[in-house]
Design goal:
Blueprint: E1 9-12, H1 19-29, H2 33-41, H3 47-54, H4 70-82, E2 86-90, H5 95-110, E3 114-118, H6 131-139, E4 142-147, H7 155-163, E5 167-171, E6 186-188, H8 204-218, H9 223-227, H10 230-239, H11 246-260, H12 265-273, H13 283-300, H14 304-311, H15 316-346, E7 358-363, H16 370-381, E8 385-390, E9 397-402, H17 409-415, E10 422-425, E11 429-434, H18 439-453, E12 461-464, E13 466-467, H19 475-481, E14 496-509, E15 515-521, E16 526-531, H20 535-542, E17 548-559, E18 562-574
Parallel strand pairs: 1-12, 2-3, 2-4, 4-5, 5-6, 7-8, 13-14, 16-18
Antiparallel strand pairs: 8-9, 9-11, 10-11, 14-15, 14-17, 15-16, 17-18
Helix pairs in contact: 1-2, 5-8, 5-10, 5-14, 8-10, 10-11, 10-13, 12-14, 12-15, 13-15, 14-15, 15-16
């Protein structure tokens, strides 16, 4: 069983985009030709479409009015505000759920609402609206529960709340169960079968933003008051791995701008603790810098600390951010230990030719970290992966699953639902509860269903966008590429390939020598390059002196106070 990431299969875009389209973009937009080749390769060959892609506008966001269930949701929320009822805003314990709860709480309070914010404890309360949330609503004397990033499968809890005299408005983005929706006052979810909203890929915070945008407009508030909270939408969209296309990309792009000068005291403290203050921010800074710190408390301790940080209005924010920083460091240690355990379970049992899906289970694993480790295993074996944490006592086990591109994980989990107590999620990630005695039956069912859905052995693929000579790999091109971002799922960072280049001065770098620093040269130009984590796998090829095909991302690097263009290698092969 391989314990390092699999080498991807290169999948090239058309090697020569239509020269007429490229020339037309160069002439009309006055952009570097390599960028225009990229735009054509990605389907933006029309000058008007390319201009809209490179310069998106908030005016291009969809009208929230097409969200099914929006009108009764707004009516009930307005009624609560006008009657001074307490609204329990019920989020979730991940980044999306915390951000959604913070967005609702901040904006509703600005509108004069009485709000009691709540996010469940992962281990003590479990996922979704449940008894803990209903008890919290009763204790706060709330007459309305407004869910944020949860509730779409909480049929029993909604009925229980109604029996207690508490109305529920569900706002969520997870896939509903087949059959009727929860019996709430309103259900707002773009994934409702009867919902005509164009963007089915909103995260939970994105749904909350849409609800509050519509509410603000109905009360005569300016759009800007809601737009100031796009920092939370951007963070949640990236953290929940939503596609950065269409309006998701627009909200994330403008959300990054808002975040750079955010009014949110807690977010400013979080940026500082992550070393991101006063820096140009990217989607990668959100996914690798802010999101893990905010997620850590929900995974190991109480997500309420993360919500407190995002709602903080005073000097306590720095102390809260420091708490998240310490918790994240502990999470990383737990993560490393569990990954080692998981790789050990795979050795001797995993057969890549046979297994299309993998289920690993162990006692002692922390249920808050299994999702992260499942993602790490997916990176190594490129198979849908489930990790199950079995408690030391007699309680139920908790499972978390992560997928590969093109595999509908929720559909696979649903096909095995007879073995589960409850489950939920979407195509890329899912979670469930299971009795320990049912784990082996679930493993067999999951593996069988995965084989049906993946008849051929899946191999990771890397899309090559454009062939590039090293002379074209300039700082100007790197700067212009920023306008094609933010990059992430659905809008990946462009990958260029330079063929038949030579590697010069390759040497291991880093504290453990795992990385390679080198220069790429093709006789007409030379470009500095860095290959993270490739010293062991690509060191021999880099030092062979033979020509190579180098696949890389282009970026600007700051070195000794000077800025220079740099190729960040993603793969390298002997020249064809």
């Amino acid at each position: 069983m391989t314990t390092t990431a699999l080498s991807p299969r290169w999948r090239s875009a058309p090697p020569a985009p239509d020269p007429a389209l490229v020339a037309g973009l160069v002439g009309e937009l006055r952009l570097p030709e390599p960028l225009c080749r990229l735009l054509v390769a990605r389907g933006h060959g029309d000058a008007r479409a390319a201009r809209a892609f490179l310069r998106p506008s908030l005016d291009d966001l969809h009208d929230p009015a097409s969200l099914a269930g929006l009108t009764p949701a707004l009516d009930r929320i307005r009624f609560a505000i006008d009657r001074r009822e307490t609204i329990l805003v019920h989020g979730d314990y991940d980044v999306d759920g915390i951000c959604a709860a913070a967005l609702y709480t901040r904006l509703l309070r600005r509108m004069g609402a009485r709000v009691a914010p709540f996010v469940p404890h992962r281990v003590r309360d479990g996922y979704d609206l449940g008894p803990a949330g209903i008890r919290k609503a009763a204790a706060a004397d709330a007459r309305l529960i407004l869910t944020a990033d949860c509730g779409i499968v909480a049929h029993d809890a909604v009925l229980e709340a109604r029996k207690s005299g508490i109305d529920v408005v569900v706002t969520d983005h997870h896939t509903p169960k087949d059959g009727p929706l929860p019996a709430a006052e309103a259900v707002v979810n773009p994934r409702r079968p009867d919902c005509g909203y164009p963007n089915k890929g909103l995260c939970g915070t994105g749904v909350a933003f849409k609800v509050m945008h519509a509410l603000a407009r109905s009360r005569g508030a300016p759009d800007e008051e809601v737009h100031y909270h796009l920092d939370l939408v951007a963070l949640a969209t990236v953290a929940d791995v939503m596609p950065l296309t269409g309006e998701n990309r627009i909200m994330t792009r403008f959300g990054l701008r808002v975040l750079a000068a955010t009014r949110n005291v807690g977010l400013r403290a979080l940026l500082g603790s992550a070393g991101l203050a006063d820096r140009a921010l990217s989607a990668g800074n959100l996914s690798h810098g802010l999101a893990p710190r905010l997620n850590a408390v929900g995974r190991l301790e109480d997500a309420a600390a993360g919500l407190d940080l995002l709602l903080c209005e005073d000097g306590a924010a720095d102390a809260l951010a420091a708490e998240l920083e310490a918790t994240n460091a502990r999470r990383q240690a737990v993560d490393r230990a569990m990954l080692q355990d998981a790789v050990g379970l795979l050795d001797g049992t995993y057969d890549p030719a046979r297994d299309r899906g993998v289920v690993l289970a162990a006692r002692g694993w922390h249920p808050g970290v299994i999702g992260i480790v499942a993602s790490r295993v997916v990176e190594r074996i490129h198979r849908p992966t489930v990790l199950i944490a079995i408690p030391d006592g007699d309680g139920g086990a908790r499972g978390s699953a992560r997928s590969i591109p093109g595999f509908d994980l929720l559909e696979c989990i649903r096909a095995c639902g007879e073995h589960l107590e409850r489950f939920g999620g979407h195509t890329a990630a899912a979670g469930f509860d299971i009795r320990p005695g049912r784990i082996e039956a679930f493993r067999q069912a999951f593996g069988a269903r995965a084989r049906e859905m993946l008849p051929d052995e899946p191999v990771p693929e890397m899309r090559i966008d454009v062939e590039l000579s090293l002379a074209e790999a300039t700082g100007d091109l790197a700067r212009f590429l920023a306008h094609a971002g933010p990059f992430g799922v659905g809008n990946p960072t462009p990958v260029f390939v330079s063929r038949g280049v030579r590697v010069r001065d390759a040497k291991p770098v880093g504290s453990d020598g795992r990385h390679l620093r080198m220069t790429l040269a093709d006789g007409t130009a030379a470009v500095a390059a860095i290959a993270f984590g490739m010293a062991e796998t690509h060191g021999e090829l880099a030092g062979s002196g033979e020509p190579v095909d180098a696949a890389f991302q282009l970026q600007e690097d700051s070195w000794n106070g000077r800025r220079r263009v740099q190729a960040r290698l993603v793969d390298m092969r002997p020249a064809e």
